[in-house]
Every structure is written in C-alpha cells, then in structure tokens.
Amino acid sequence: MSRQGHDPLPRLHQPEQQSNLPAWMLDPPPSRRTAGDRIAVALLALPGAAALRRRWQVWQGRRRLYQRFPNTMKVAGFVVSFAVALGLVMAVYVVLPRFS
After folding, report:
1. What is the full DSSP assignment across 58-92?
2. C-alpha 15 chain-centroid distance
3. Which pLDDT score, from 0 to 100, does residue 4 have?
4. Between helices 35-44 and 49-61, what is the axis angle to 10°?
5. Structural domain boundaries in the chain
6. What confidence score (pLDDT) does residue 97 get?
7. How far apart are CA 87 and CA 39, in angstroms?
8. What residues form the membrane-spanning segments (predicted)?
9. Residue 49 contacts residue 43 (beta carbons within 8 Å)
10. Most distant CA pair in the chain: distance in Å?
C-alpha cells in the first residue's frame, strides 16, 4: 500500500481545502416572511392560542381507537356495514310495493 495513515478510504473533503461553493451558498440570506407566516404570528399572539395549540398537538399525537384495537374495530365495522345494508334492503322492500 502506497498510502500513509490508518484510513483505508480516501477523504472527500480535506479540512484545509477551500470550498468551491459561492458565497451566497455558504452563507445564505434569511428566508422571507410570507403572508401565511405573518397571519400565523398574529393568530398565535391572541390570548389562549398557546393552550389551544398544545391541546391540538396532544389531539394529533393520540392513538386512535382503530390503532389500539384493530381487530375489534374490523368486527364492529363489519357489523355496522351489515346493519346499514340490511336497513337499505328493507327500505327498498317497503317502498317498492307502493310503486308497483
């Protein structure tokens, strides 16, 4: 092996090398505030907005019932869909003789 040192792989970027990137890429300007950002800041400044936001985050992070009990929800969904289909068929039998 002709290379010196312990690292068997070549290094892609040596610390002493200058970067080839332009200055605006090395130190980009800050992002502009959009209308949506301004509206969000204004809404979050209202009283109670922080508590509402925390409640929303807790609500979004909760585990849904179908995630906690997947098989139970599948059985319940089957029963509900059967009851709805049966109700629709019975409604058709009730309404159909009136039009005959």
Report:
1. HHHHSPPHHHH-HHHHHHHHHHHHHHHHHHHHHHH
2. 39
3. 56
4. 110
5. 35-65, 69-99
6. 78
7. 48
8. 35-52, 73-96
9. yes
10. 98
Q: What is the per-residue pLDDT across 5-32, written as a single tens digit (0 to 9) for each?
A: 565 666 666 667 777 888 888 888 888 9
Report yes or no: 38 and 45 within 8 Å, Cβ to Cβ: no
Query: Tens digit of pLDDT for each residue in 32-70?
Result: 989 989 998 898 899 998 899 889 888 888 888 888 999
Type of residue found at 26: L
Look up residue 31 and give its amino acid: S
**Residue 40: CB atoms within 10 Å:** 13
